[in-house]
Structures are given as structure tokens and as C-alpha cells.
Amino acid sequence: MKFTRLRSLYKTHTPPGMPMKGEYGFFITGWCAALLYTLLFVLRYVNARADLYGCDPATGRRVLLAGAVITDFSELFDGTWTGFFLLAVCMVGFAVWHYAYFRLGTQSIYLMRRLPDPWELHRRCLTLPCLCIAVCLVSAGLCLWFSYLIYVCFTPDICLPAGFPTSFFHYVFRR
Predict the structure, then answer these.
(1) Helix (H, G, I), strand (E, B) or coil at 72
(2) Range of the domain at 103
């Protein structure tokens, strides 16, 4: 029942006759690649955290270095949103492709303009790309939030930079 409803919704919000499997596969592949690219933060964080420790020559154990301060969060997180940004730009390209499909591919632009609903063309061309852009924005926000939690929870308090906000919202909206 739910799948037939989803399919009918899918058919009314996509260009008719346009193969969407490739676009769907592109988005899923791009989203997974962007998610993997955000793991760059974890790699940078692990390296920065390892720099906080040294080896005690007497015991041979790892000890926290006196006065060690971890790299700032903004430097560690820098550039990890690039994958989601590029995917969102590609979705804008897909919206343009949907409009071009009506104008050049099927020549059905005249039919779409004569329909009683004047927003039919725009709904069919923009719904999926806008939905994918929203998924990119939410995913990027969640990655920022999880990265911030990792940074705050796993860094020793004495090693956080001076004046570092421990509230996520204070960090994001401090400007």
C-alpha cells in the first residue's frame, strides 16, 4: 500500500518518461562519497589528539604533555563539507537538465504550458533536486554536530583551546 502511494507520488513529481534510475544512483553514490569524505575530520582529529601525548621515558607509557593544546575545531573541520556542497551543485545541474528534457528531449513544453495547473512544469522539474539539496543540507548539519561532539567529548578539558565554547549552538552562532 505504501509503496504504490510512493510510486504514484514519484510519478507525479518527475518528468514523464525520463529515466530516473541513473539520477537516483548518482545521488546515492555522491551522498555516500560525501559522507566518507567527512570522515577526513576523524582522521585529522585522531592525529591532532595523538600530538597531545608523549612517551614517558621512565615508564614507557603515554602521558599528556604539559601545556598541550589541541588544534582548533574549525581547522580540523575545514573542507569536510566539500562533498555535500558539490553534490548540491550537481542537483542544481539536474534541475536544469529536467527543464532541458521538456524543451529539447520530448518537445512537451507546449503541453505542460497548457495544463490547468501552472506549477506542474516546475513541480516536475524541481521537486527531486530540491529534496536532494535538503538531504545534503541536513546531512552536512548532522556531520557538523557529530564532529563537534567527538571533538568536545574525546578531548581532555585542559587541552581545549582557550575560550573554546562548549555549547554547540554558541559555536555555530557566535558571529
Answers:
(1) coil
(2) 19-172
- Answer yes or no: are the C-beta atoms of 144 and 168 closer than 8 Å: no
Residue-wise pLDDT tens digits, 7-60: 666 677 777 777 778 888 999 999 999 999 999 999 999 999 999 999 888 888
Of 149, 158, 103, 146, which is closest to residue 125 (Cα–Cα)?
103
Q: Identify which of 86, 75, 74 has the alpha carbon closest to the alpha carbon of residue 37.
A: 86
Grid cell digits, residue 146: 557529530
pLDDT, residue 117, reads 78
Residue 116 placed within a domain: yes
Phi, psi (deg, nearest 5) at residue 55: -100, 125
Cα 94 from chain centre: 17
Would you say the pTM of this structure is higher than 0.90?
no
Domains identified in the chain, total number: 1
Residue at 13 is within a domain: no
